[in-house]
Amino acid sequence: MAASLERRTGAVGFFYWLWDGIDRTIFTGIKFSFPARFVSPFGFLGMLTFVIFVILGVSGALLMFYYQPILDRAWDSVQFINDEVPFGFHIRNIHYHGSNAMVLMAVLHMYYQYFSGRYKIRNEVLWMTGVILGVVTILEAFTGYDVIFSERAELAISIAASLTTSIPVVGPTIRDAALGSGFSDFVLRFYAQHVFLLPIVMLGLMAVHFPRFLVFDVPMVMAIGGAILITGGVFPIDMGFKFEPTVPPGVTVPEWYLTGIYAFMRTQYDKFVTGLLWPLLFIISFVLVPFIDRYKKFSWRERPIITAFGITSLAQIMVTTYWGFYISPDISVPLVERLVIDPIFFYSTMILMVPLGFGFTYMMIKLANEAERKSKLAKSTGPKKVATISLSEKWINWVLVALLAFQVFLNIAAYNAALTGMKNVSLFFIGIILLVFAAFFHVYRYSMSEQKNAPPPAPVPVQEEKPKLAEPAVSPQAGQLPDSNNDSALTGKPDAKELAPEVPAPKTQADMGVGADGNPNLDSSDLNKP
């Protein structure tokens, strides 16, 4: 920051003193950019992932005030937070749905960078740390919902224990370090991993992964916050059933980001291969993509093999995720048989999806290239003007007024919902408020950008001249001078007041018994005489 001789006092002076103090820190090494116009939402996925991480940190810190990481008190303390602590229901729902949103944003961000080829701009380190950060994010979410110690958490802990034990040589050691010697101390260890160890690892990866220029958009932050609150209002997270060692557990499945691995394990094949080796190979293949991709262009249409691999992986993730959720509804069959997936059918489907994915990708690329060729041809032969959507000043004002009125109504409705104790409804209304605020902010930004554009000049009215009829020239009679009052006789120009010569209209005189000259001997029959 440039030095200034002007003396600053008060809050302004304190701000400049603080900014000068941190000017050489890593914080100012990252340049924050606030866009003045709307940008594609896909460009904000990385920034939104970081924002959700901050939301999870704040809400998780508030939950730590009442949570007790003790085996026989963990579930009861969460129930106390959910039912008794003021705003505990809201904070817990924000934290739970925020964790799911962070996993989703991380996956979408990774695939957006993958298909757009951003790792080709000398961003191999950012890509590798991003993939590792996504894996750590899933582990963070996994340890988070396990500390409740419900029946669902017990299933996830049992799967994690069996997977770590299946690792050759070092498996039992990793199991004892991560989960402890039994249920007596695993809650405290998972709690320490969730609130301390894994967040430190994530912060370290974020420090390397973040680019120097970070685009921060206020409407997008409000939109993702509103989406989390709306999800918490529509789908409030319940407590589930407390795990009791003496009571047989019910039928349950892990969270959606783990059901794919759960589907592989339900084939009853080797646990190490299905639960660890396949996911590890998948992660390693994504890490090595920047070094395998040798295409010179960035577009997914110009990188058919890389695009085909990405689409095939997405299809397999969606299919295995759904398969992990599915459990046969036939209660007459034993529970073990309902959970088992036929390995021949399962792996045959996975193998068949590879040629189908590559074939679909090739066909899609061909269609896209053909459509682009036709659009270029139509552009070269058709009109050059591109159709755009533009709001007038009148419509912008009406939209702003409508959004402002809707914002006031939603604030009143949310306040009434909070007074009546409808917790999930208040979450829903607050989420709608944030979304409306995001829309209001965007419309306002759009109107300001439109205001900067100079309006076109007003059209000048053109007066059309009426055609004038040519006046026949009248020559003066011999011995008669032209009238001095008639300028047209002197200048040869027609009179400006007279556009056309007057033509005498024929008059018919009625037969009154008297001629036109007063002669009573003439009548109307004499008119026909020559």
What can you tell me about this protein's structure?
- 59% of the residues lie in helices and 1% in strands.
- The protein starts with 9 loop residues before the first helix and ends in a 39-residue tail after the last helix.
- The protein is mainly alpha-helical and 530 residues long.
- Helix 5 packs antiparallel against helix 8 (186-209) and helix 10 (259-265) packs across helix 11 (271-287).
- The longest helix is centred in the last third of the chain and has 39 residues, at 343-381.
- A two-stranded parallel ribbon has the order 1-2.
What attributes characterize this protein structure?
59% helix; 530 residues; single chain; disordered C terminus; mainly alpha; globular; two-stranded parallel sheet
Summed up, what is this model?
It contains 18 helices and 2 strands. By secondary structure, the chain is mostly helical.
Q: Give the strand line-up of the largest sheet.
A: 1-2
Largest sheet: 2 strands, parallel
Q: Given the structure, what is the number of helices?
A: 18
- Basic shape: globular
Instruction: Tell me how many strands there are.
Output: 2
Low-confidence stretches: 484-493, 508-518, 520-530
Query: Helix and strand succession?
Result: HEHHHHHHHEHHHHHHHHHH
What topology does this entry show?
Blueprint: H1 10-21, E1 31-33, H2 45-63, H3 74-83, H4 88-116, H5 124-146, H6 151-165, H7 171-179, H8 186-209, E2 213-215, H9 218-234, H10 259-265, H11 271-287, H12 289-292, H13 304-325, H14 335-339, H15 343-381, H16 393-419, H17 423-452, H18 487-491
Parallel strand pairs: 1-2
